[in-house]
Specification:
Blueprint lengths: L2 E2 L24 E4 L7 E6 L5 E9 L7 E10 L17 H17 L17 E7 L11 E11 L3 E6 L6 H23 L11 E6 L5 H4 L5 E2 L19 E5 L6 H22 L13 H15 L7 H9 L20 H18 L2 H7 L5 H9 L3 H18 L3 E2 L8 E4 L2 E4 L11 E5 L3 E9 L4 E7 L6 E7 L6 E8 L6 E21 L14 E5 H4 L7 E5 L3 E2 L8 E9 L4 E9 L4 E5 L1 E2 L1
Helix pairs in contact: 1-9, 2-4, 4-5, 5-7, 6-7
Amino acid sequence: MSFDISCLSVLLTALLSGEPASELVPFESAPIRVATDGPTSFTLSAPDADRNYLLITGSTAMAGSTSNVEIKRTPIHPKTRITPLVRDMTAPPEWWTWRVKRDRDQMERARKPQSGNDSYVVGRFAPIRNFHLFVGEDNLYDTRKYVDVRATLASVGKHCLVYADSSSKVEQALIDDVVKTFDERVYPSMQAVFGNHRDVDRNGKFTILLTDWLNRLSDGKVALSGFVRGADFYRDVDPPFSNRCDMLYMNASLEPGPHMRTVLAHEYTHAITFSEHTFGEYLSGGQGRDEEAWLGEAVAHLAENISGEGWSNLDYRVSTYLSEPNRYRLVVPDYFQDGLWRSHGCRGATYLFLRYCVDRYGTNLLTELSKSNLEGVENIEVATQTHFRDLFRQWSVAMATNGVVGAPVKGGLQSVSLYGRLGERLLTGVRTPTLEADDMTMSLAPTSWGSSLVPVKQGDACQIDVITEDREDLQVTLVRLPLAANQAHLTIRPEKTADRAVSLEVAAVEPVRWKVVTWERLRLRQQNARDNEKMARIVAAPELLHHGDRMNAHDISDPIPLSEFGEDPVVFKVMGEDQHGHVVTAWGVHEVRAGLITASADKD
């Protein structure tokens, strides 16, 4: 099942300013002009049948604090004159259009086929090498925070050298898998899309160091699967600040298999994009700087889709983001500086944004983003020839719409379904609260968005007021959905037992065959995560809900113990199918610390 929403590309030439909201065709997105001196207001009606509208509010602020947006719904008489929508018809300035075209043309000419790395292949390589590794915190210039890792050459591949830390236990099976994966899959596929790494030591091989020091970085507080250090790619930086070697670091504790292969593809892509951005000559007067953190991570995550195996590095990040898209920033130039290093929700945001862009513009977009001397927003604008403001709106509309109809949509996210199994997670769309009688307050982080469903019964009408102090960076978009869909509510009740436990009650207006129930931590720690931090439970609904094996509009679960989640908030998601074959979901959040239980109802 799929839906045609080609209007998601915001074909403004086909939209008439002042057209009433009631005239919106299903899936048409209307960018609404934000008022400069008060609430942004418009009216909605359903003269002939029940209707659902999707209201998307976003912030295009690039920095600053979280802003609060209040959304008020006021009933009006059905015969009240419906206020026409005031559409945002703002187009990019001419100077911007000229600049992005100039830069793209210049870089495209510079991306001519090259002979490859400035390297030579030698017959022998050092059997033992010392590598310098930063294991402290904060001050990268403090030589006392570096350790010398004495490593033995464990294997020589066609394109790589693998060194094993002499003080670490490194399994031969891991070494063999690293060499085979890099030579046969990662190296050829990543170079075909992203470009070349800089052969710093000019030996024709890329170095991979396996060490268990990655289990105790930041003075023992952080464990990583792998990373790339840009300083290593400079030939004129002295040790210990650089190993003067094209290389990446991998955790010796990794198991051979899909996750390791995904990490290898991700990290090698970082090596290529750093080399291309910093040492490539694509623009005259290029600054020679690495890609901004958010877009660099997005590119590396997309590489996992190309050459990796599975979703082990993404599933929990995507799921975390979909639970609270308004909480997590998209554009973060430096994760360390902004205190968002290893913010899994931010990583989920940047992956889904670039995944949408590649679905829309094609895989060649990744080549243009990598082989570039531009960074961040400027880089994505030149590669897509689309102003970020418009691209951000189109992405948020595509995500929100995919997140409530339960099926792929043309012009939206195609290659990743927001419903169903993704690795070890179950996705149930985007958490979308319903705006009925009560007002709603939404917190928006910079470059984030949130959506709400606005149902209007046949013959009714209402006025919507969107109120915020940060009007300059606010985006408001309205989408009419094709159906007035089923309504489901999830209630979470605490159980009076020794262990932390709850029971679920899920109800729907129309009968639903509930298929699956899942629960996981609402938010993940950025650092000092527990071993089971990424744990999620997925259970077939008939095994948990009474009467879940047949059509029923009211189902209750047995007690569910939550002691393994500690004091952390837990999000519950239930997904099923109604009599018409439409996906129906319900969400609820169990907050333990505040002694508060909240439940939200979503309609699909």
